[in-house]
Amino acid sequence: MRTSFLGRRSVIKEGFRRLADLPEEERREQAVRLNELSQHMQREIDARVDAARKAETAKQLEAEWLDVTLPGQAPRTGSWHPLTEVVQRCLAVLRQLGFEHAEGPEVEDAYHNFDALNIPKHHPARDMQDTFWLGPEKLLRSHTTTVQARVLGQGRELPIKIAAAGRVYRNEAVDATHLAMFHQLEGFWLEPGLSVGHLKSLLAFVATSLYGEDVRFRFKPKYYPYTEPSLGLDIACTNCGGAGCEACHHIGWVTIIGAGMIHPAVLREFGYDRDGITGIAFGWGTTRMTAQWLGVSKVRPLYGSDQRLLNYLHRGQQ
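Below the sequence we write its predicted structure tokens.
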């Protein structure tokens, strides 16, 4: 357009070239008109070009518009397995009471798994725990109480407050509610003067810390070879509120903690049967606790590798 109206061969330039052929008076007037026309065309062309550029910019902005105030698409992050999260919550509660975390081997010997815990050979209590034997003396630990035996064997100074968590193994028939491997958490406390009153207060604190102040719980007598007396703590099933459901086998109550005063034979085995020393011990299955926390009646899905199912159980997302 600029070339057509203002170029060397345009009508306006041709008019300028013919000015010399015009009379003096007419030449001056014609020159003024041509200059005005040239300036007008220059302004018009500049305006059209500017408008075209603005339209092109607006079109590009519309096509490439982006709301920078929108939240970004953050990558999905991993999280603890529900079992690990429950264990960490339990350990956090016990840390408030001064308990120290300790670990022990999963491949144990018969002494730390049985003999040191008042379960000698041919003791009928060994039949309570069907064991995976790896040889004459080696086995997969059947409970985390083995950590208690190993810590007491170190001869530590009092008071001793230990919490241990980990996998345990039982040679049981596998079904939806029973597995050959599951998780336990154990705690024990040695100090002169401890009594059943201390034990029940501690268990009540643990139960309310984990399940809330409104949780309904009860104590009941139990038997364990390494504690005397022994007791259990039941809570009203969190899945049905105590009405009875598949998760609690329609009883309404679920035993979450087994506990008792450490048996005098265990204290004697490690030289703590002196100076009025007594001990309390307690433990619970974190597998069952996790199932109650998630509101599922079967524990088997907790140990599966289906990430979609674990994500749904943990976060309530598909």
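The chain has ten helices and nine strands.
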